[in-house]
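Researcher: Going back to the complex we discussed earlier. I've cleaned up the inputs and rechecked each line, so this should be the final set. Can you rerun the prediction on the complete assembly and write out the structure?
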Amino acid sequence: MTTSTRIVLASRPHGAPTAENFRTETAELRPPGEGEVLLETLDLSLDPYMRGMMDDADSYTAPIEIGQTMVGGTVSRVLESRDPSYEPGVLVLGYAGWQTHSVEPAKRLTPIRDTGLPASTALGVLGMPGFTAWAGLENIGKPQPGETVVVAAATGPVGSMVGQIARLRGARAVGIAGGTEKVAHLHELGFDAAINHRADDFEDQLAAATPDGIDVYFENVGGKVWDAVLPRLNTYARVPVCGLVANYNSTSLPDGPDRSQALLGRILKRSLTVRGFIQNEFAATQTDAFLTEIAPLVADGSIRYREDVTDGLDNAVAAFAGMLEGRNFGKAVVHIAD
Ligand code: NDP
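Model: Rerun complete. Updated structure for the full complex:
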């Protein structure tokens, strides 16, 4: 018998998640059945979408139930296999969630390609977040040479990829991040301009960094960044709406007045394209194209990435809460086993 330590949802948060919303449990796992494998989790991805799944709210996916193991992308090692596709010892990408071991159907797993890079990159730069950036730009943002692309949460796995792809397409990349250290990192990544959204003169800095307006705003955060960006969007600008992390812990709408009519007016008068998307929409048909283009560029260092690794499942809750407040610096990963 294998014992799994897991973190389950104990209660639904009101606002920012706290330790009381989670509970650690242990469970004896049954042996894998036909077509299943026993996995040991090595790395767990922490992603902002998990906060939405803690609420019992209408969304693009069902909420996590109370008592259910927290969900999440994982890199795992196969310990035992009752499926011919996987030998013990191989590394797989899966969705085992916040737990040390699990029994999974083999058909829900993907072998990790040998890129010469650490396996954890399958959770970030070469995984779901990197693909999200690529798919949002390819299908919606469509940056053209000389255009200005703006993205916030720009040192994270989605935003840093948005900026670097924008530059590959010949566009100007303007990154927005929280704090001077993150802003300095954006310059190292090759962003043409970088702005601190915590600065008092944030709006003036944005105006100075976008003298020709904004052609593509890759929306990761919402909140006051969106308020500052909206008046600067050019005619025919495209806005892939990817995430609204500034609002994920909100418990009410912002104070009035209701600005929805002004927003619609701006969309009309500037002929804006504002298009939400969830990356799954494109994953089945476009992941190969993403990896074909981007994996070699990551391998040769042309595209750079940064991971923020937390050691131990015990520290996952604090790391997750911190990520939602910007305390992560790079792709948030929990390292669970070597
Ligand atoms: P990050 O690792 O970048 O973490 C979130 C970051 O958001 C924080 O580090 C912080 O960065 C920033 N942030 C938090 N609060 C605020 C705020 N009030 N104002 C401005 N920035 C804030 O996350 P990811 O790269 O994984 O994800 C980025 C976005 O993409 C999220 O909204 C996520 O939900 C979305 N997403 C959407 C997908 C889809 O299919 N549509 C798939 C994957 C991700 P800083 O300190 O720089 O402010």
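Model: Worth noting: DSSP finds nine helices and 15 strands in the chain.
Researcher: Good, that matches what I expected from the previous run.
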